[in-house]
Amino acid sequence: MPVAVSALAHLSLLSDLPAAELARLAGLASERSYARREVVFDKGEKGQHLCFLLEGRLQAVDFTVDGREVGLYFVDVGDYFGELSVIDGEPQAEYMIAVAKARVAFLPRHEARTLILSRPELAEQVLMRVARRLRAISAQRTLLALPNPAQRICAQLAQLAAGGPLIAPVPTHQEIAIMINTSRETVTRVFQVLQNRGIMRREGNQLHIDDLAYLDSVAGGQTEPPKAG
């Protein structure tokens, strides 16, 4: 399915390109829709496109040696992914799964790589994105080493709130459970305790963190993790 020029114009990486260049890229790109839990690409798959999320939400996941699914990061509307394979030509480093009904635009790797390398401002954006994502994945793997599930939940919430006290859209309990290698029921119980203590409050699809210092303290081991009995 072809991609509308207006859709590309709203993407953060491409929004400053001239109209003629956007029209050219739209003619080269394709679009596909995905149902919830459908796989966008597999780990080890040859990376042939730079991908852009037009609608929905995605989650990058991998698996532990014992087969447990672990969430690495989310992709939100307007964001791009698959850039590592575009840069080095190596296979995809993780699985990408739709956690909501999604629409994805695909720009062929050769065209995406040529575009990025010909424009220093785009190259800088992509390099900064790669650096941030690698740091986030490293922090996520460190978080998984924490022994207590409640401590991991607090640490995950503190990471999600690093950019500000409002987490939106808030991941589902199941998505958080996948991210920290625990059960959905455990996440639900800890959330109830944290909300009852006034540490956080939920309003629709937004989560307000009112005591980030508490979450940081639990994550760092200075404060006992909440008990969810």
Give the tags.
229 residues, alpha+beta, four-stranded antiparallel beta sheet, 9 helices, 11 strands, elongated
Describe the structure.
Helices cover 43% and strands 22% of the residues. The protein has helices at 5-9, 19-28, 83-88, 109-118, 120-144, 149-160, 173-180, 184-196, 212-220, and strands at 30-34, 39-41, 49-55, 58-63, 69-75, 80-81, 95-98, 102-108, 166-167, 200-203, 206-209. The longest helix is centred in the middle third of the chain and has 25 residues, at 120-144. It is elongated, with a radius of gyration of 19 Å. It starts with a helix and ends in a 9-residue tail after the last helix. The mean pLDDT is 92.
Query: Could you give the order of strands across the largest sheet?
Result: 1-8-3-6
The secondary-structure class comes to alpha+beta
CA-atom Rg in angstroms: 19 Å
Give the low-pLDDT segments: none
What share of the residues lie within helices? 40-55%
Largest sheet, strands/sense/barrel: 4 strands, antiparallel
The H-and-E topology, N to C, reads as HHEEEEEEHEEHHHEHHEEH
Distance between the termini: 51 Å
- The coarse overall form would be elongated
Number of helices: 9
How many DSSP E strands?
A: 11
What number is the mean pLDDT?
92
Strand content: 15-25%
